[in-house]
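User: Batch of two.

Assistant: Item 1 of 2:
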Amino acid sequence: MTDVKITPELVKEHGLTAEEYDRILAALGREPSITELGIYSVMWSEHCSYKSSRIHLKKLPTKADWVIQGPGENAGVIDIGDGQAAIFKMESHNHPSYIEPYQGAATGVGGILRDVFTMGARPVANMNALRFGEPDHPKTRHLVAGVVEGIGGYGNCVGVPTVGGETNFDPSYNGNILVNAMTVGLADTDKIFYSAAAGVGNPVVYVGSKTGRDGIHGATMASAEFTEDSEEKRPTVQVGDPFTEKLLIEACLELMATDAIVAIQDMGAAGLTSSSVEMASKGGVGFELILDNVPQREENMTPYEMCLSESQERMLMVLKPGREDMAKAIFEKWELDFAVIGTITTTGKLTLKFKGETVGDMPIDSLVDDAPMYDRPWVPTPKRKAVTVPAPADLGKAVMDMIGGPHLSSRRWIWEQYDHMVMGDTIQRPGGDAAVVRVHGTMKGLAISTDVSPRYCYADPVEGGKQAVAETWRNITAVGAKPLAITNCLNFGNPERPEIMGQFVGCLDGMGEACRALDYPIVSGNVSLYNETNGTGILPTPAIGGVGVMADIDCMATVAFEKAGETILLIGETRDELGASLYQKQILGEDDGLPPLVDLGVERRNGDFVRAMIENGQVTTCHDLSDGGLIAALADMAIGGNMGAEITLGETLPLHVQLFSETQARYLVAAEADVAETIRQEAKDAGIPVTVLGKTGGDRLSVNGDALSLALADVRAAHEGWLPNYMAAAE
């Protein structure tokens, strides 16, 4: 084959520095072919190699007695008892979703589903964490519509419920939205599949869809910041087919019920290249691939294109010898491609052959273990000073503006486009603190939450990182489940800027501290850097996805008030913490001061107390306090139960502080008067602050008589009206 001349310009186009190219020359002892250059470029990209983050990720806690598999595999695995495991991961599809929102979001869902069923799990729940620019930006409405349609279109067709998530707006995402997708699956602990290849001479098998030219250089694009010409990158966005994915799930699970599979890996970022390299690397073996055998849907594809394509719905497997025909019959029954494309070797190399010629011959170690790892210069985020945040000019208007504004309004318009009931095991729907899905055929439930407050991470990365972890822990606790482990999607700007790298390091320090204090390890995750446009970065957004287990789904709490006349209790102490709050940002148009401090000992103490109340049946109505503070939580509970409330707050702090403070480790619960008194006494004995606020009932939300009195019908209309009205508005 005639090869392409490698020039400095071509090296740069592939996202490699001159120093990195010198490392390639040293690893090969010669000049690379164009195919080899492409392979090094994707394997050494930020997206695949984590070259700016690996050094810091090693500091995170990843182990616990219930952790079966931590980071390093397709997904994390935790033991949930009774011989069952939950398998889950969260990943980003940010850059593709900005360029082509429908396909970008859809293929993000498809990719995370494959990460989970690759491990042997049947996916049972999808979640997402979405961040868009300011609502009045000219592209925001178009991006919201496309992303939501893409998530719903793929998830609904593949038959896995989308059970919850979060959607937020901020100007920092105007040119770089975030689409983070999470999947949770269930498997038996003795039927978990891994990706380490083994067995010299064993066949390497390609299954699923044919390979096309879509998604070439997707991993490289995801490792660069946007510029004005980013719209031209549409060809690097993959195209998904959820119906094929459904067939692929069923075919893989059917084959997994046999003893045929030695190792399995999905073809995600960097496609055939990353899957083969990672499988060979983990197994300490070599791969020889015959590219002529790769199923192709386009004519005259080159080795470069086949290796770098990110066409969707494809898997790579190593089978036991002699199992090929049986496996082929299964995949052909499901109308999927099946091809033996190579064998395992002892060479320790990735050897590629095409039309009788060797077009690639690279040491596996040089692509993985010897990939660049940078300790980027970083500077800590300067400490802010405390500020006094004044009261609003009109308290009632401020409350209505927040509850009926872009940040706190109902996301019903979004989740009603998702099939959240398919499979029949969703028992807590979107809109609560955490989604709950029954472990099929049992009384156990999986509680799932995604959360992060980027305002806090920007103001103080360490506290923000702690709060992101603690918030998902609280959300899972508030439904009555025991939080067990997290996955994450670490979305940041350009790591070559010391202040951005400082945000990353600070957030990870905070996350690690919280995980250790709460016995809540990290078992999987994803890093997404270079989320910038023309040098302007997003807010630091380390999205956290948490998973917990409840032993008995009959002992589950929801946010909705259930009965008039119940006593409303506030668990936890309220402090004057309005710095970096939603109130300060939305109502006053400011963003300064200290974010709320996270006392992890208090988080643990208060949360364990609340969970015990729910587990023993004392409480079935509970909501944690976060964005918007007490009044936002109270409004959620009233709207959910279609029932008002009347509360009285003391004078220890100004009224607006008590209503809007975002002090952490707090929960609202409602219970019958005698039960509430028992709870109050138990809390007192445990040294936990508990305040009796008032009673449920009526058709108004009232605080201190006439100090704040809002008709529940008006609150509901504002809360539920903002998003559909926004999306219905003319572009």
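Item 2 of 2:
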Amino acid sequence: MPIFHQETGNFFHLQNQQLSYVIGVEREKYLTHRYFGSRLPSYHGSNHLQFIDRGFATNPFPEERGLSLNALPLETSTQGNGDHRIANYQIRLANGTNVTDFSYASHKIYQGKQPLAGLPALKGGKTEVTTLEIQLVDDISQLQMTLVYNLYEKFPVLTRNVLFENNGNQAVFLENAGSVQLDFPRNDFELITLNGSHTNEANLHRQALHPGIQKIESSRGTSSPQHQPFIALADACTTEFSGEVFGFHLVYSGNFAAQVEVEQYGSSRLQMGIQPETFEWQLNPQTSFQTPEVVINYSQKGFNGMSQTFHQVYQEYLVPQTFAKAERPILLNTWEANYFDLAEEELIQQAKIASQLGIELFVLDDGWFGQRNDDTTSLGDWQVNEDKLPHGITGLADEVHKLGLKFGLWFEPEMISKNSDLFAAHPDWALQVPDYPLTEGRQQLVLDLSRSEVQDFVIAALSQHLATGAIDYVKWDMNRHLTEVGNLVLPPQQQKEISHRYVLGLYRILDSLIQQFPQVLFENCSSGGGRFDPGMMAYMPQTWTSDNSDAICRTSIQYGYSYLYPPIMMGAHVSDVPNHQVGRITPLETRGWIAMSGNFGYELDISKQTPTDLEKIQEQIAFYKKHRKLLQFGEFYRLLAPTAQQFATAWLFKNQKEALLIYSNGLAQPAVPANYLKLHYLDAEAMYRNDATGEVASGAEFNQAGILIPRLKEDFAVMALHFTKE
């Protein structure tokens, strides 16, 4: 069994072929973190804990002045009795105090993994996952805290969550419910985060740890484009290709906090979970609270090694299994071609051209319902506008299907316009705080998904369309953050539960819809990457990566997101030039190669393209179809990171039969030196043929000697080389 309890020393050793994670029980009471890293054949406690009588230290055992909770490497924090570092939980008791005293009580080890109540999580069967549950009990308050660790057999991955239970007879309040805490006995790490904004998501940021707290968070109601719910700790020498890195990713779509504290004696505490300032939960007697899950990923092979693990684990254990190995269609989306100006005959003509080019999915974006002629009205009124579509959605879908295309439809189900029939009938269904004005964004409000009747409305509204069988794909959008997070239903002491209840309501809606309509492909969108997180990926196997479709911006955005997500999860479209977001003009070839590096599609007026461009589009589609398995399911490796000065980028797709190198030069440079790019990841002993030149060499040669990148006398040019294994 890969998890075992060593009675000698009282250790728990979580071990597979790639990692070991060791937990100790100190003084039969406190859970201590003893080791996390590459696999140990066994553990005997050689890295002894250090006990020093330090000034200002408080001592849980007065006679042991060297034992201080403020210096002990803990698996979960304590509260109010000496651990002054960042906390993984905080509980307010019925008497108003914030002191608890949890002690180790028992543990269970078993094969398999239990689902989390109301929350998405990685899956895994009895042969794939082993679980350790450690129960801690506060005998005074009758509270129980269970730390749950799930170790995956095939991957250097474990997950962690916490279950809080109130076994007493008085309600208490959870003010902080973190999912993971980890104390490292060192502080020489670099902190890795992915930060950004709308249309500028997933910028890689790397900085050395320093004394004090370094923190990212979202209080916007969603995981947000500002900060991905991810942090990693890496050695200063870690690169894409080598070095040690510890990655942490929260499977949650709402407010979160992820932080690291370098404390006074040089250790580092990592903590991640629901953002506490916007959270509180009334934990009544005989009830429980489940925290989201954190995926913990260990790599000895640099950032590409970490990414490969995330990619494979998410495809195998996170996304809906219907689509885990299903090829995704090439699509045409109407948004940048039509915006709100929709007419049935014109749409059918676009679909005809798309079919002739080999496109496989036609997606009708915003503007098809209510009086939706701009973004100021009709959200919530999900009835077709028959002035635009006289034969309805099913009539248009039938015509699209006759052309051999699948049909997709856009919704923004979580929103409500003030100018809508729904708001006139149910003004109380919007998130709101009594007596305060409603803050609008894009002249829309947010439906209160914490309420079951609102959840039921959304399920029914979408189900009536999906039940026709006419819709093969749904683009689910969410275009503003949450304000006035309150409602007229919950009592005052539970108003801070609404942010989390909103996320739980969203998950209930999504779970209901995918259970009813398992063959419908859902794409997640929140103005692009505003809610691109593992929680959403558990229901929707792909995400519209960014509203910024400029190819050069996308090299950076897709590069950043690839730290966590495989290309098949990243919607990437060829759009018109000048680009609608930044005004840049880039070659169609460049736009094609960058979009083919994600989940491929087009978002332009196909009826206004020149014959030459239509021919190039047809060639792009033919190439993508020929190599779809490689591009959607192959291993993806980053080779060259874009910089703000030049934007040059390179990455590699590889499977057992072939490989594809895509190199973008960014801005052309004068007086360039010879540029040799090492491919790193081809099979060293195999022979590969460069299909462009006919040159044959070993994978080792291409990996280590590299290939010459010719001088490209053009801004934003792309060179793509295909290699076939001999």
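The chain has a mean pLDDT of 97.
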